[in-house]
Amino acid sequence: MTTTIISDDNPQLLLLQPVDSHDLEELETEVAYIRSHTDVPFRLVAVHIRKWNEELTPWPAPPVFGKIPFGDGAEGTLREILKIIDEQQQQLGWKVDPSAPLKNVILGGYSLAGLFALWAGTQEAFGGIVSASPSVWYRDWLSFATTHPFLSAHVYLSLGDREHRSKTAIMATVNDCINRQRDLLVAQGVDTILEMNPGNHFQDNGVRTGKGFVWAMKRM
Fold first, then answer.
1. CA 105, 217, 26, 76: dihedral to nearest 10 degrees?
2. From the first residue on, what is the mean pLDDT of each consecutive set of 10 residues in the chain (220 residues)?
């Protein structure tokens, strides 16, 4: 996988984010937001995702938009991201705690990448998870989340307050789904917040993701 890396001097936290071309366009805005809201030095590694519907979902599902179905590539994507994290930690010269190798790593994403981040939080103990406007309406996701405990200590959730106003039936359930997701996390004792943003799904994704990273950085 190819990456775009933005780094402060002597970073204390490593931020990982799966991105598409639109996320890359928003990256400068996102980083500016993070830097203006926290003094913690960080390195952000944006991981380029070529096949969005295939590489970020943990099991297949029918298409929602157009004719491209969802795949089961999340496991492979997570393996690649873990390799990238290991390489970055070595490059930074960090002394990694074998019992908690990801404690200084925050995994975040927007939309389907936000769902991927949540799923990854059930597989690995990241220091924090940022899930901005995630696709929690995804088929069978909440059933999975109910039976698979989260391993990360801090989880940020957000949603646009107009996202549920969708003509697509499954996406119109997103408000109920994200509230159920929050309740599941709280019941598991995970430090969780759900923040509502003004607008629909296609607004301010850089700032919305940046807000999540700032929250997680401050909690850690």
1. 20
2. 96 98 96 97 98 96 87 98 97 94 97 98 98 95 96 95 71 86 97 90 89 97
Selection from 119, 118, 88, 116 nearest residue 102 by Cα: 88
Torsion, Cα 21 174 194 152, to 10 degrees, reads -70
Q: pTM for this one?
A: 0.95
Angstrom CA distances, 186 to 43, 154, 155, 182, stand at: 29, 10, 10, 6
Both tokens of 32, joined, read 């500016």
Pairing of strands 42-48, 3-7: antiparallel
